[in-house]
Amino acid sequence: MPGSYREAWASVARNRNLRLAQVSSLSAWTGEFLFLSAMTVYAFDQGGAAGVGLVGFLRVLPATLALPWLGALADRVSRRQLLVIACALRAVTAAGAAVAVDQPAVVYALLTLSTVCHAAYRPVLAALFPTLCTRPEELTAVNAVRAILDGAAALIGPLAAAALLAGYDAAAAFAAVALLSGAAGALAARLRYESPRPAAADRPADRVGAVSDVVEGLRELRRRPRALDVIVLGGAQCLVRGALTVLVVVVAVEVTDLGRPGVGVLWAAFGVGGFVAAMASIGAAGSARLGTLFGAGIAMWGVPIVLIGLLTGSPVAVGAFVVIGAANALVDVSGFTLLQRLVPDQTLARVLALTEAVFSLALALGSLAIPLVLSTLGDTGTLIATGGSLPVAVTARWAALRAIDADIGVRRDRIVLLRRVGMFRLLPVPAIEGLALRLGRLRVPAQRDVFRKGDPADGFFVVESGRVAVIDDGHEIRRLGPGDAFGEIALLRAVPRTATVRAVEDTELATLSGDQFVSAITGFSATSSTAEQVVTGYLSDDRQRHADPPRADPEGRRDSH
């Protein structure tokens, strides 16, 4: 097992919050798949195929319409509290459906409300994950584990539904959904973390209501064209996935000799590919090429569909669905990770909720449109056209995907630099990403001062290359090199500079404004405590130095003045 693979698993396993969040997700999604199976059977018993169609409509449209507002709410209130409330309401509505099982109208109303409650779960949890992580590569591992657990839920949920429906009735299945939802909420309630507090400049000035929050989410996408590229390509993939829900029957019955039972065989192959790829994607936790991996996954979704049309045969179809399942897991893991890293935390929940709404609509449109395409192009033509659209879309946006990789690569280098500063090591991903985006650059020639003792404090500095000397009363007291930082004492104490810092050789510095540094450090208790210890230590050293004869400190320190 590669080292990065083991490290990614370990990083998730040793983080208490991530363990709780993942088990909560497993419980919630097991309940969702159980719910879907039981609801479909109940609807068929009550109204036949028309009843199933009605339930499909009630599942998609209300939840899709509610998602943007739920996302806006998640950016206003505690995401943990929203998860707990959503799970509790889902438990109550599912339990109500179990009690009212003999009244279909009441059951359908409660099941619709239950679906809306669950609709908020994934985008809100996905928006919460970055705050629970301390390293970007940990975030990729988290999404990969989530994909694996989703696959397990997709297996456990339907099997549980089958057992409950065979041994009892739909009421028992709905009651089980209520229990699973309640467990998911109880686990979410045990999460303990500090939410990032944005600087005043990052807070939208026009947040006066839910409508403005939703509009702000749309504006955020205009400001983040690379995130929009991810959503557009993901939407194209969802169109094809919606089409595949119809085409799978065509492939099993018309294109191959698998017959009607082959529908289950093909979807099972899809699941196998997804599980294996989700496991493998953990190994990409440290990759800076998430953009091209995402694009490759989109293209891999389409190419096997084209091959099914060109090379008819059961083995080809089964193998193609394995590849499609693998591609789906790759798209899921890399796509969510990209959005979590490209969109600021303040608007992340509403952007993810808008994304879910777009994807849901695309799935519905794909399944609705494909019968018309089949009647026009025939089986082979439809498979080729449908599958071929995705590689074409990826080719058209390949330069944009490469640009995403370049952006993430630069951020990764900056985050590595910032993590070398002791005060920054415990910052969650949204905070460290925000600092990385705001880093400036300053080149200082040899023997020139960065600042002098008594100057106003207006910035924090990290040495990227070269060396600087810290000088007090004409004596060099320490020398700092790559990865060392200085400038925090005056910023945190709100006093003038307490020493002079001079470049010993040509030096390149990464810079943060005073406001950005103070906001990041004081926004979290752990970093604030670490910074206070550092500052207190240096001030104590200064008092001791003035009491004793001055002497150089050849070892240097990590943070100073």
Tell me the name of the CATH class of the largest domain.
Answer: Mainly Alpha
Strand order of the largest sheet: 1-8-3-6-9
Structural class, judged by helices and strands? alpha+beta
Could you give the count of β-strands? 9
Question: What's the gyration radius in Å?
Answer: 27 Å
CATH-derived architecture of the largest domain: Up-down Bundle
Number of domains: 3
Q: Which stretches are low in confidence, meaning pLDDT under 50 for 5 or more residues running?
A: 199-208, 549-560
Looking at CATH, which topology of the largest domain would you report? Growth Hormone, Chain: A
Question: Looking at the structure, what is the overall shape?
Answer: elongated
Folded structure, characterized:
The chain has 561 residues and is α+β, with helices and mostly antiparallel strands. It folds into 3 domains: 1-136 and 154-192, Growth Hormone, Chain: A (Up-down Bundle), CATH 1.20.1250; 218-396, MFS general substrate transporter like domains (Growth Hormone, Chain: A), CATH 1.20.1250.20; 410-560, Jelly Rolls (Sandwich), CATH 2.60.120. The protein contains 18 helices and 9 strands. It has helices at 3-13, 16-74, 79-99, 104-119, 121-132, 136-167, 170-189, 210-223, 225-255, 261-281, 290-310, 314-342, 345-396, 398-419, 429-438, 488-493, 514-522, 525-547, and strands at 440-444, 449-451, 459-465, 468-472, 475-480, 485-486, 500-503, 507-513, 559-560. The strands form 2 sheets. Strands 1-8-3-6-9 form a 5-stranded mixed sheet. A 4-stranded antiparallel sheet has the order 2-7-4-5, with no helix packed on it. A hairpin with a 2-residue loop joins strand 4 and strand 5 (475-480). The longest helix is centred in the N-terminal third of the chain and has 59 residues, at 16-74. The protein is elongated and about 90 Å long.
